[in-house]
Amino acid sequence: MADEIVNRVANSNLKTINLEDFYPKGERTVIDIKNWLFHELILKEADFRTHVSNHDWSQYQNQYIALTCSSDAIIPSWAFMLITTYLSPFAKKIVIGNLKELETSIFQEIITNLTIDEFIDKPIIIKGCAHKPIPETAYIQLIEKLQPIAKTIMFGEACSTVPLFKRKK
């Protein structure tokens, strides 16, 4: 009788975490305010306030928003704060920056709130082949969170991992 094939990975206490599983649904949008400026360079307070108050903010319902100004204008802090007062009743999250900074902020919050009890004293594989835009910083933050409690941390797939950390005995 032939030897039975045993899936040692499935039978191990190995834990896999895939950041893609935590990727929140929702449209990501960049709002560039350069066109709201005089000659795309000068913020005239009265005109800016009029534009902000007349803008349809409801179109951003349940979206993740990155606020930016792509021109070389100097934008006072209160301008983005004012926009946020109108935008916050509709948007899921608002940051100043680009889409990469938005994703980084989203994942920082996800990892901060991640429950890690199931990973205590376990060997962990962090999956790396993502089809969604997972920021590199998210992997770093995940390592920082898991390292104090993990037995080992590896990166990749169960069939081919790169060892990253092993707790000293």
Describe this structure in words.
Helix content is 30%, strand content 20%. It has 169 residues and is an alpha/beta fold. The strands form two sheets. It has a four-stranded mixed sheet, covered by helices on one side. A three-stranded parallel sheet has the order 2-3-4, with helices on both faces. The longest helix is centred in the middle third of the chain and has 14 residues, at 99-112. The model has no long low-confidence stretch (mean pLDDT 92).
Task: Reconstruct the topology from this structure.
Elements: H1 8-11, E1 15-17, E2 28-32, H2 45-54, E3 64-68, H3 77-87, E4 93-96, H4 99-112, E5 123-126, H5 136-146, E6 152-157, E7 160-166
Parallel strand pairs: 1-5, 2-3, 3-4, 5-6
Antiparallel strand pairs: 6-7
Helix pairs in contact: 2-3, 4-5
Which features does this protein show?
single chain, 169 residues, alpha/beta, four-stranded mixed beta sheet, three-stranded parallel beta sheet, 7 strands, 30% helix, elongated
